[in-house]
Amino acid sequence: MTEAILLVGGKGTRLRPLTVNTPKPMVPAAGVPFLTHQLARARAAGVDHVVMATSYLAEVFEPYFGDGSHLGLHLEYVTEREPLGTGGAIRNVADRLHSAPDEPVLIFNGDILTGVDIRSLVEEHTGSGADVTLHLTRVTDPRAFGLVPTDADGRVTAFLEKPQTPEEIVTDQINAGAYVFNRSVIDTIPLGRPVSVERETFPGLLDAGAHLHGLVDSTYWLDLGTPQAFVRGSADLVLGRAPSPAVPGRCGERLILETAEVAGDAKLTGGTVAGARSAIGAGARIEGSTLLDGVRIAPGARIRDSLVGAGASIGAHTVLDGAVVGDGAVIGEGNELRSGIRVWCDARIPAGAVRFSSDQ
User: Fold this and answer.
1) What CA–CA distance (Å, rounded) separates 292 from 271?
2) Prior bond to 163 cis, omega within 30?
3) Terminus of the chain with fewer CB atoms < 10 Å: N or C?
4) Rounded to an integer, what distance in angstroms lies between the CA atom of residue 311 and that of residue 316?
5) pLDDT digits over 23-75, tens only?
6) Is 162 among the catalytic positions?
7) How much is the mean pLDDT over the chain?
8) How would you label 112-124 residue by residue, b for 16+ Cβ within 10 Å and e otherwise?
């Protein structure tokens, strides 16, 4: 196993305003861009060559990661001129791969935090003789997902759209966003047009009699597509609930980066991250939250399950609970923002202007 494709071209619309200035895989989780965790886990599993399929804000990736040598990887970047979907993006980077037709190629979505054993996924693929192997996970409520039932031998039997009725829920297994393709299968994907692996490639292969295998894995799994999920994922990395060799410090209640300044009586818990050059004032209480670089938290602020963007400022005694504050925003003192409210980048909220808001 030597090669992988990372699909990092999405616009991250559901994560706005976090993704206004930053592509989704580059938003920091547990102190480093989320993509760093994926690359580190791939390298630890024996991958040495990764091709990134980029699109939205593609210019951000290479200046940060370079050729990947500092991670022990050889990184390449391929940018889509027009969005091509998951399958189209995979096919678009095929000429950068070095694998022989019958060799495995790992493929990851750039917004999934998972503890799946990558070596075991590849071993399952080669051992089963499959053309494609999918990482599957079980969820309590599968209604928001496409279902992937398998037989007793792990062979995929169908790809079912999101169930609309209880009778349509024939399994709790869903596509977890990591795959192993035989190199030859990648070449069968149409070139130069949008293709969805979920809706076109996988069902088409199944109809053609290809062997699609499912590895059902019960380790940590989280789709980081929403701000609430992203905050939770970052906290879980800091707490050690989600595995990553790239967390820049010991796992525990907090991660305070070296250049952050935290008042002696401030309390940071629940996997909170204080980013570089951030400053947290006296008496602040911050739980399960992510503060990006250069954030200013005034004395007495209360922040819970929230994400505060780079360079933002939170006023004295302001309360954030389940809130997302964009880069450079300024929230005056004495405000109370709750229940999923999003404050756009560079917005200004005067002192005491908002006492409570929900579902905005």
Assistant:
1) 14
2) no
3) C
4) 16
5) 889 999 999 999 999 999 999 999 999 999 998 888 889 999 999 999 999 99
6) yes
7) 92
8) bbbbbbbeebbbb
pLDDT, mean of residues 292-320: 96
Q: Rounded to whole angstroms, how far apart are CA atoms 323 and 319?
A: 9
pTM, two decimals, is 0.90
Question: Per DSSP, what are the bridge partners of residue 182?
Answer: 104
Residue with tokens 């060559």: 49
Query: Given 11, 24, 162, 267, which residue is catalytic?
Result: 162
Measured CA to CA, the distance from residue 308 to residue 289 in angstroms comes to 8
Cβ partners under 8 Å of residue 159, min gap 6 = 146, 147, 148, 198, 202, 203, 206
CA torsion sign for 117, 68, 195, 192 is: negative
Q: What is the dihedral of CA 108, 111, 117, 123, to 10 degrees?
A: -20
* CA separation for the pair 282, 238 (Å, rounded): 23
Confidence check: pLDDT of 356 > 70: no
- Is residue 118 within 8 A of residue 4, CB to CB? The reply is no
Contact indicator for 288, 270 with CB cutoff of 8 Å: yes
Strand partners, 107: 5, 179
What length does the chain have?
Answer: 360
Q: How many angstroms separate the first and last alpha carbons of the chain?
A: 46
* Secondary structure string (H, E, C) spanning the chain: CCEEEEECCCCCHHHCCCCCCCCHHHCEECCEEHHHHHHHHHHHCCCCEEEEEECCCHHHHHHHHCCCHHHCCEEEEEECCCCCHHHHHHHHCHHHCCCCCCCEEEEEECCEEECCCHHHHHHHHHHHCCCEEEEEEECCCHHHCCECCECCCCEECCCECCCCCHHHCCCCEEEEEEEEEEHHHHCCCCCCCCCCHHHHHHHHHHHCCCCEEEEECCCCEEECCCHHHHHHHHHHHHHCCCCCCCCCCCCCCEEECCCCEECCCCEEECCEEECCCCEECCCCEEECCEECCCCEECCCCEEECCEECCCCEECCCCEEECCEECCCCEECCCCEEECCCEECCCCEECCCCCCCCCCC
